[in-house]
Amino acid sequence: xxxxxxxxxxxxxxxxxxxxxxxxxxxxxxxxxxxxxxxxxxxxxxxxxxxxxxxxxxxxxxxxxxxxxxxxxxxxxxxxxxxxxxxxxxxxxxxxxxxxxxxxxxxxxxxxxxxxxxxxxxxxxxxxxxxxxxxxxxxxxxxxxxxxxxxxxxxxxxxxxxxxxxxxxxxxxxxxxxxxxxxxxxxxxxxxxxxxxxxxxxxxxxxxxxxxxxxxxxx
Length: 219
Fold this sequence. Notes:
Elements: H1 8-21, H2 30-42, H3 49-56, H4 69-92, E1 102-106, E2 109-113, H5 115-126, H6 138-148, H7 153-157, H8 161-169, H9 171-183
Antiparallel strand pairs: 1-2
Helix pairs in contact: 2-4, 2-5, 2-9, 5-6, 6-9
């Protein structure tokens, strides 16, 4: 598996594949995936890949029937490469950490779209137990949840343009604060999960179905 940031072509391929196999309950684009992976790396426990990969697709019944072994292997390798790159920046180069927000163009003007990333982050939070988060850290989580929970849509619609922009700028620093908080806790795991580039026929399928690879995504 390669190391370092994904290039634009690789990110676009991931985006297309998420859309190809996505559904109403799945992660639908690479911005949402980036948010989910950031939360998984930032939380109090290490979540096993089979758990979050299943959640990524919206549950076991939605796990893709890959068109080929090559497609599945490339998806796994790029996803874990991106996850490790996020982990490196969070841990060793926080000044280089930036959420992978989306963009849209409207009336000739480009707008930042933070909601997908924040929904992905909150999806990752839901896979762990954040109930012991210190009270002084809850505003940081609230800064992300503001854009990442459906019940806050009306609140966002009522904000002034300036307040909305300020709330967007707060997301990245909030994510860093939450990562650093959980890393400072004694029970926080120290090593990011990495992917193996090859899967044996009789190994558990990396999609998280619980079946052997030969009986699941290989075909």
